[in-house]
Amino acid sequence: MTKHDFTLFLFFSAVASATFSDEQEFSESESCNEREFDKSHFYSNVKYCGEIPLTLSHKLIDALPLDEVEGNFIRAVKGCVFSESQPTPLKEPLTLAAVSQDVLRNILDLNESVVQNEEFVGCVSGGKLFPGSIPLAHRYGGHQFGYWAGQLGDGRAHLLGEYTNRKGERWELQLKGSGKTPYSRSGDGRAVIHSSVREFLCSEAMHFLGVPTSRALSLVVSEEPVRRDPFYNGNVIKERGAVVLRLAKSWFRIGSLEILTRTGELDVLRTLLDFVIKEHFKSIATNDPDKYVVFFSRVVNETAHLIAHWMSVGFAHGVCNTDNFSLLSITIDYGPFGFMESYDPNFVPNTSDDEGRYSIGAQANVGLFNLQKLLEALKPLLTSDQLSQSQQILREYPQIYHQRFHELFKAKLGFLGNEENDSHVIAFLLKLMEDTGADFTMTFRQLSEVTLSQLQKGSIAPSVWALSDLSSHEYFRDWVQLYVQCLLSVESDSDAARQHRMQGINPRYVLRNWMAESAIRKSEKNDFSEVALLQKTLMEPFMNQDEAERAGYASKPPSRAQQLRISCSS
Ligand SMILES: *[C@@H]1O[C@H](CO)[C@@H](O)[C@H](O)[C@H]1NC(C)=O
Ligand SMILES: *[C@@H]1O[C@H](CO)[C@@H](O)[C@H](O)[C@H]1NC(C)=O
Ligand SMILES: *[C@@H]1O[C@H](CO)[C@@H](O)[C@H](O)[C@H]1NC(C)=O
Ligand SMILES: *[C@@H]1O[C@H](CO)[C@@H](O)[C@H](O)[C@H]1NC(C)=O
Ligand SMILES: *[C@@H]1O[C@H](CO)[C@@H](O)[C@H](O)[C@H]1NC(C)=O
After folding, report:
1. By the 8 A CB rule, do 181 and 156 touch?
2. pLDDT tens for each residue of 448-484
3. Of 420, 426, 428, 490, best ligand 5 pocket probe by most atoms within 8 Å of the beta carbon
4. How far apart are CA 174 and CA 161, in angstroms?
5. What is the widest separation between alpha-carbon atoms in the chain?
């Protein structure tokens, strides 16, 4: 290779052009089941949290059709968006392993002293219900690993209701791991400590990295045994059950719409879509004849932005099925995700995803695939003119994605304006990182911590380990020269200002798998100290923190981390 002889944007150019399938024709089915819902009778045997001042409401039930059948037995559900479903409490003793003070205070308006109340653990794990709560399981479908999978739905989650906080924000509270629902298929409705610690820590960490995401209030663990086959090799082991209470402005997914189109329930489709637009896309006029096109263009734009954001922090989601993609373009459903360590566009966080369908470098393409499926779901509601407008909008997705990717990586390198060579400098750096296996997070961080003159001298201390790895590349100096040239072309800038800017966006700490695994091992023995330390550290990922440094969170990953096989126990 010569120093300019590499494919620009290897990491992020592979966005195929959009194609559309026209095969499906859908017919209108008979109208959906509208049922008067009598909230007063609800579940006579339910215990309510009397002492926790959090009252939930249920716009969703008022606005959207509900399953006529009651009970948690597994079935094919028709004509509705939700089924009532009562959580099955985990067996006591239960331990409150972690709480997000930020969610408690700033989303739920609660005083931190509520966690001392004996009732709290029950309320956040499905043993008791918040006043006003009517637990629901959502019916959705989806494309999994490229294929239509039919009815899926919340198989182990319960939507408790909505809370409107004093800022006027509306949040939906959901339990995950809270027992069977009509959508459990062959599952047991449970989640284990392993996946619950990961979801709790990572959704909060993503928020503090500035990436749109669901949030998590609490993590409760039990002694209840749950059987799992973590490596899909027939080796069934007992793990312990856990419940996370998670929150989002909305939990609707692409698959929420897809199932209604597939089954021809077009009235329900229109009702749901109108509801989502009215509640969550407030700038779209409800009487706009093109509102579905405008809605689609918003989702296309925001999805492109979200995935570019994932890439900028090295995040691979791991299961980008259409039922794991939010209509609000927030990150949801933390499963076999991973933060890339050594830079590798083929990084696949799910060790069983042998084809690498959801590798980090494939995410932009998978986003496009999912948006195509969204458009197919909207199609019966569009005129042919609106359909072709929407197809045109989708063709712009690669450009929106590249633009955003470019802006984010420019900022990561401290560039201020449009430097003539900036794209080249970004692509060149990624290529050096790929060749040397330099650590993604720490290369950018350490670039923000060294001065330009240190860089130019090439005197990189071994303790600056990621940059030191990078500097072993034969073209490192050429890259530095180009980089410095770009930076110096902005006369008003100073090196200190550059470092400051870069340190504000290049994290020093991300949730690496080895850190999560270590915290999980301790959690399984009821030691939650490392969960607490990670939680605290990841709330301020851009700040150097003594305790985190002592724990090695910014050090070269232990060599065992390279071989670590991540269990897919969920
Ligand atoms: C929380 O509640 C405690 C006890 O009721 C009270 O002493 C404290 O001032 C409250 N804190 C805040 C921030 O409101
Ligand atoms: C696209 O989404 C981003 C991120 O939410 C937003 O800042 C931007 O204004 C949107 N652009 C358009 C054209 O809607
Ligand atoms: C993603 O969706 C699948 C259904 O396709 C569901 O089984 C799984 O739990 C979801 N993933 C996560 C991590 O929640
Ligand atoms: C990991 O990938 C395999 C193979 O595609 C898939 O069957 C499995 O469901 C994935 N695991 C998770 C947790 O998504
Ligand atoms: C861009 O790179 C070329 C080739 O390395 C160089 O000649 C030119 O001066 C650079 N431009 C700027 C503004 O740094």
Report:
1. yes
2. 999 999 999 988 999 999 999 999 999 999 999 999 9
3. 420
4. 8
5. 76
Instruction: Let me know if 399 is exposed, middle or buried by CB neighbors in 10 A (0-12, 13-18, 19+).
Output: exposed
DSSP 48: B
Q: Say which residue the tokens 């609000």 belong to.
A: 328
Q: What is the 3-state secondary structure (H, E, C) of 290-345?
A: CHHHHHHHHHHHHHHHHHHHHHHCCEECCCCCHHHCECCCCECCCCCCEECCECCC
Q: Can you read off the two tokens belonging to residue 224? A: 């209840």
What residues form DSSP beta bridges with 237? 228
Phi, psi dihedral angles at 24 (to 5 degrees): -75, 135
- Side-chain-side CA neighbours of 140 within 13 Å: the count stands at 27
From 485, 488, 493, give the residue whose CB has the most ligand 5 atoms within 8 Å, as the site to mutate.
Answer: 485
Instruction: Say yes or no to pLDDT of 415 above 90.
Output: yes
The ligand minimizing its distance to the Cα of 301 is 2
Three-state SS at 240: strand
What is the per-residue pLDDT for 9? Answer: 41
SS3 of 293-308: HHHHHHHHHHHHHHHH
How many residues make up the chain in this entry?
Answer: 570
The residue type found at 482 is: L
Backbone angles phi, psi at 217, to 5 degrees: -85, -45
Q: Report d(CA 16, CA 4) in Å as an integer.
A: 24
The Å distance, Cα 112 to ligand 1 centre, comes to 8
Helix (H) or strand (E) holding 211: none
- Global pTM? 0.92
CB 55 near ligand 4, within 6 Å = no
For residue 513 the two structure tokens come to 């798998």
Q: Show which residues are catalytic.
A: 323
- pLDDT per residue over 184-201, tens digit each? 999 999 999 999 999 999
Residue of the CA atom closest to atom 13 of ligand 2: 301
Q: Which residues surround ligand 5 with Cβ inside 6 Å?
A: 420-421, 482, 485-486, 489
- Looking at ligand 1, which atom is closest to the CA of residue 112? 1
- pLDDT digit string, tens, across residues 71-98: 899 999 999 999 999 999 999 999 999 9
Residue with the nearest Cα to atom 5 of ligand 2? 302
Cβ < 6 A, ligand 3 pocket: 142, 144, 152, 319, 321, 323-324, 333-335
| Interval between CA 175 and ligand 3 midpoint (Å) | 14
Ligand 5 centroid – CA 401 distance (Å) = 26
Q: What is the DSSP letter of 161?
A: E
Bin 264: left if φ > 0, else alpha if -120 < ψ < 50, else beta: left
Name the packing angle between helices 513-523 and 529-539 (round to 10°): 140
Pocket of ligand 1 (CB under 6 A): 111, 113
186: three-class secondary structure by DSSP = coil
Nearest CA to ligand 1 atom 4: 113
In three-state secondary structure terms, 443 is: helix
Among 319, 321, 352, 358, residue to substitute to test ligand 3 (most atoms within 8 Å of Cβ) = 319
Q: How far apart are CA 165 and CA 173, in angstroms?
A: 12
